[in-house]
Design brief:
The structure holds two protein chains of two kinds. Helices cover about 50% and strands about 15% of the residues of chain A. The longest helix of chain A is centred in the middle third of the chain and has 15 residues. Chain A starts with a strand and ends with a helix. The longest helix of chain B has 12 residues. By secondary structure, chain B is of the alpha/beta class. Chain B is built from seven helices and eight strands. In chain B, strands 1, 2, 3, 4, 5, 6, 7 and 8 form an eight-stranded mixed β-sheet that branches. The chains are: A alpha/beta, B alpha/beta. Chains A and B meet through α3 of A and α1 and α3 of B.
């Protein structure tokens, strides 16, 4: 089963994981890391590699980061290994729920494609969507 | 026109893109770093943070002066970021002039003195800061623009 680390600025990662646990459960082998601002880059990198080690069982790992270009994302990019460690930026709740509900029986590659497609569709302008449906 | 010079050991990251760029209404960012300019992966990642409203340029220290004198940049609003105080002083010595120097992130965890949550400086940094002060450059220690700056205090004033 694919594992995951959510790494963000502030308390977002912990809050998303806590919320996802309440809604979907199945958060085994998912870790949350919040960068509070006092850590050095080396410390953050060590936190991230430790978390990956804990949750990696050979099926691959997804690192979810909050924004491309931010420190969590920049450090995660240095650990990118196609087919082993994939990175998805712009984490949000629908994305994590989709991950939790679809990570069994899929390869890492299939899973990340599914997630990114879903992530793109998960932000909607409600008025526009309702007009289309009506 | 460079409106802000910032020392930040993370160079381009969330505080820069999410706070300083909108606060300064910047059109371009210059990342002045010999290490990043010679690393094609880091250059690609940082360049990808730009869009039609923000140009991101990654330059070696020795190429910065020529770049900022380019006409299109002279007219535009820019932020220049270096990874440490040494590079800020190298640019000053090459003729780049600024009246204020923002210090956002420095982490010298081994032999450092903590000035703020994200600024931990060593002796060499202190010497450079004091040299900047002697040139009349204001030292502005803060990570993001919406927080008040932390005053720079010389070593010993608080019994350190």
């Amino acid at each position: 089963m694919v594992g995951a680390v959510i790494i963000t600025h502030g308390g977002l990662a912990e809050a998303i994981l806590d919320t996802a646990d309440r809604i979907a459960g199945n958060v085994k082998d998912v870790r949350a890391i919040g960068i509070k601002g006092a850590e050095s880059s080396e410390e953050i990198r060590a936190m991230l590699t430790d978390a990956i080690k804990e949750i990696s069982h050979g099926d691959g790992v997804v690192i979810f980061t909050d924004m491309f270009g931010g420190t969590p994302s920049n450090i995660a990019l240095s650990l990118l290994e196609e087919g082993e460690v994939e990175i998805i930026t712009g984490v949000n709740l629908p994305l994590i729920l989709k991950f939790l509900n679809n990570r069994e029986g899929r390869s890492l590659e299939e899973l990340v494609r599914l997630l990114v497609d879903h992530g793109h569709k998960s932000i909607v302008l409600a008025s526009e969507m309702l007009k289309k449906k009506g | 026109m460079i409106l802000l010079v910032r020392v930040d050991d993370r160079l381009l990251h969330g505080q820069v893109l999410g706070a300083w760029v909108p606060f300064m209404d910047a059109d371009f960012l210059i990342i002045a770093s010999d290490e990043s300019a010679s690393d094609s992966f880091r250059t690609a990642v940082m360049s990808a943070c730009g869009d039609q409203h923000l140009r991101v340029l990654i330059k070696r220290i020795e190429d910065v002066m020529d770049e900022v004198e380019e006409e299109d940049l002279r007219e535009a609003r820019g932020i220049l970021i270096v990874s440490d105080l040494k590079d800020a002083m190298r640019l000053y010595d090459k003729g780049l002039r600024f009246t204020s120097l923002n210090i956002g992130n420095i982490h010298h965890s081994n032999d450092g003195r903590r000035l703020s949550r994200s600024v931990i400086i060593n002796r060499e940094d202190e010497e450079i800061i004091e040299r900047f002060e002697s040139f009349g450059v204001e030292i502005d220690i803060r990570d993001i623009p919406t927080r008040p700056p932390v005053p720079y205090e010389k070593r010993g004033l608080r019994g350190e």
